[in-house]
Specification:
Layout: E1 4-7, E2 11-15, E3 26-29, H1 32-40, H2 47-63, H3 70-85, H4 92-107, H5 113-143, E4 151-154, H6 169-178, E5 184-188, H7 195-206, E6 211-214, H8 219-224, E7 230-233, E8 237-239, E9 244-247, H9 250-259, E10 264-267, E11 273-274, H10 291-294, E12 295-296, E13 299-300, E14 313-316, E15 323-326, E16 329-331, H11 335-344
Parallel strand pairs: 4-5, 4-7, 5-6, 7-10, 8-11, 10-15
Antiparallel strand pairs: 1-2, 2-3, 8-9, 9-14, 12-13, 15-16
Helix pairs in contact: 1-2, 2-3, 2-4, 2-5, 3-4, 4-5, 5-6
Bound molecules: 5-S-methyl-1-O-phosphono-5-thio-D-ribulose.
5-S-methyl-1-O-phosphono-5-thio-D-ribulose (MRU) binds next to helix 2 and strand 9.
């Protein structure tokens, strides 16, 4: 199933991931506010997917604009981009996509509003299409690292659903399967919103890749029992030194992988790399409603009135990362130098 689809009448359809795997329904977004709301409530989620959705959201937001000059138009589009970028702070792909569209707009030679809007839509489509191509490329680079028969632990969902298609961490796993490596997957359920149980397990079953579901607190014991050969995860933002923000729980897995001498791989497109931040300490970490922890599906699972902390992401220090897999190849330590070189190719 497609994560999103653009309808030429001027509508973005988003697969509502908050309802998966029980219901498979598409939300119709007709303006940027619909898209912003969908991103906030995780109807669309995963760093590259929210970048692509926000790009289409910006296009929707410009459709009804009637500015009297290009300058006035750009100012209004910038305001919409700020609104969309503010929906989720950690995944840099969102800001990356907004900046890419704004750059297109500012550098366009035409002042004709219709042409500017058409150029924005073309760029949003490119962001979407390039993401799929990049995921296939990083999958190819990454699968070389995967041994035959590997049992792979992953966290959250870095699959087709988290991207325009194919996936990053799950893209590497798909590519390994396509190369005939007979891999199998252990999927962390990923509390509190269960992206692993609801989405990764669903995607892997659909791709006929053997998958076993674990609750998050079982990962260490699974490693101690010799059930895991390597860990691979996606990323929401990678700082210049390689420190990586990803779904809460990723850091713990990296420490566990280190303690059990297992490779720990991060798979992400270049749009997730933020050379503007020196270390992971500068990455803004989204904190979400405590009710996501105290409640499940609207039902309380903790005593009324208890306080709960709900950071949506954590940061894995670069020293725990065996390699970062991108569409331009695989890099290792020293990440500061190697990421800079990679980005300047
Ligand atoms: O809160 P989510 O579901 O948007 O978090 C998603 C993740 O942490 C993914 O691992 C990350 O965005 C990489 S997706 C290719």
């Amino acid at each position: 199933m497609e994560t999103m689809r653009w309808l030429e009448e001027g509508c973005l359809e988003l697969l509502d991931q908050s309802k998966l795997p029980i219901e498979k329904t598409y939300l119709k977004c007709r303006d940027h506010l619909d898209v912003a709301a969908a991103i906030k409530r995780l109807a669309v989620r995963g760093a590259p997917a929210i970048g692509a959705a926000a790009a289409y959201g910006l296009v929707l937001g410009t459709m009804r604009l009637q500015a009297h000059s290009k300058e006035a138009f750009v100012a209004e589009v910038e305001a919409i981009a700020r609104e969309l970028a503010a929906t989720r702070p950690t995944a840099v792909n969102l800001r990356w996509a907004m900046n890419r569209l704004l750059h297109k707009l500012r550098t366009a030679e035409t002042k004709d509003l219709r042409e500017l809007k058409t150029a924005l839509l073309a760029e949003a489509k490119l962001i979407y299409q390039e993401d799929i191509v990049n995921n296939h490329k990083l999958g190819e680079y990454g699968q070389v690292l995967i041994p035959f028969g590997a049992r792979i632990l992953t966290h959250c969902n870095a699959g087709a659903l988290a991207t325009a298609g194919y996936g990053t961490a799950l893209g590497v796993i798909r590519a390994a399967q396509e190369a005939g490596k007979k891999v199998s997957v252990y999927a962390d359920e990923t509390r509190p919103l269960l992206q692993g149980a609801r989405l990764t397990a669903w995607e892997m079953l659909d791709a006929r890749i053997p998958v076993t579901l674990l609750t998050d607190n079982m990962a260490g014991y699974a490693m101690a029992c010799g059930k895991i050969d390597l860990v691979i995860v996606g990323a929401d933002r990678i700082a210049a030194n390689g420190d990586t923000a990803n779904k809460i729980g990723t850091y713990g897995l990296a420490v566990l992988a280190w303690a059990h001498h297992l490779p720990f791989y991060v798979a992400a497109p270049l749009s997730t790399i933020d050379l503007g931040l020196v270390t992971g300490a500068e990455i803004p970490i989204e904190e979400r409603e405590s009710t996501e922890v105290t409640h499940f599906n609207g039902h309380p699972v903790a005593p009324a009135g208890v306080k709960a902390w709900n950071p949506a992401f954590d940061v894995t220090p670069n020293r725990l990362i065996t390699a970062i897999i991108t569409e331009r190849g695989v890099i290792n330590q020293p990440y500061l130098k190697n990421l800079q070189e990679l980005m300047s190719i």
